[in-house]
Amino acid sequence: MKTLSQPTLLILSLSLLFLTLHFPPTQAKFAGLGIHRPNSPKQARQLAASAAHDDESGDFVTFYYNQTLDHFNYKPESYTTFRQRYIVNVKHWGGADTNAPILVYFGPEDRIDYAWTDIGFLTENAPHFKALLLYIEHRYYGESVPFGSWEKASYLNSAQAIADYAAIILHVKQTYSAKNSPVIVVGGSYGGMLASWFRLKYPHVAIGALASSAPILYFDGVAPGDGYYSVVTKDFKEDSKSCYETIRRSWVEIERVASKPDGLSLLGKKFKTCRPLRRTFDLKDYLDSMYAEAAQYNEPPEYPVSIVCRAIDGAPDGDVLGQILAGVVAYKGDSSCYDVYDSSPPTASDSAWKWQVYI
């Protein structure tokens, strides 16, 4: 019987454990895939509290790496660097002499202040595998914003991001003399895609990648393109059949109203849009993003899908768009206007997602 190597056993063991553990959903919207970037009340509270968050145990130590701005060109400006944040925990590490593994969490489209508390997969497995834990913040998020501004936002793409991760992993391995320590990269949603791409692009750096909720089968048309929205639809239909039917009828009703003289203006007034509507697609995209967020982050005790459907079902019958507006108010809050075009300036890292490029 052939004996499995230590790296192979590590991957198999982690893969089995990975199936039983949960990643909290990350903020995400893949262009053309319908995976939407949320801003749920729970996440908003976490983000607001993140500045005050601190690791009281002292096991997680923050470092900053002088990262190369552009990994793929040789122009003078390409050698510009910025400070990229990463966090290390060596509490359970078996040390370089034992070739103990390194588990690396790829920060997705968010700051990493809560990564070590929210991502239990790493902390729960570190003692078992005597692993060093490494958390890397994605460029242009949190404290890892080049120049502290959006001056070079053109360098915000997935290819640059995984090159960042490779540089920091190799730096950490050198720092801890861990040349022979196997590396497993881990991510969820967009971070899971980065982990998958990293394993393909840098197989000499990581022996394996674990990806949670990563839509890898959407690429190359392996999975049905409407798979995501099929689940969203199912969630609403299971919560309330009448709510589902109202939403389904609303798409036709939006087009019917838009076909009237000054129809877009009528729709804008109905939904209290902050700026005039340019096309019906913009309103529909705003609404379907809301439904997708509610379904993807349908967590207790809020249960956003139920919040939306109770409002829709509770509004007067006969006014389909009025019912939909009631759902918007219930989910988004009662506001003087609703920003269909999300015109907030890209001055904070949580606005970076809409500026990213995936190459």
From TrEMBL:
Key word Magnesium present: no
Signal peptide (UniProt feature, chain positions): 1-28
GO MF assignments: dipeptidyl-peptidase activity; serine-type exopeptidase activity
InterPro entries: AB_hydrolase_fold (IPR029058), Peptidase_S28 (IPR008758)
A single BP term in Gene Ontology: proteolysis
Entry keyword annotation includes Cell inner membrane: no
Pfam family, one: Peptidase_S28
SUPFAM superfamilies: alpha/beta-Hydrolases
Keywords: Glycoprotein, Hydrolase, Protease, Signal
Gene3D superfamilies referenced in this protein's UniProt entry, alphabetically: alpha/beta hydrolase
Stated family: Belongs to the peptidase S28 family.
Protein name: Lysosomal Pro-X carboxypeptidase
Record organism: Linum tenue
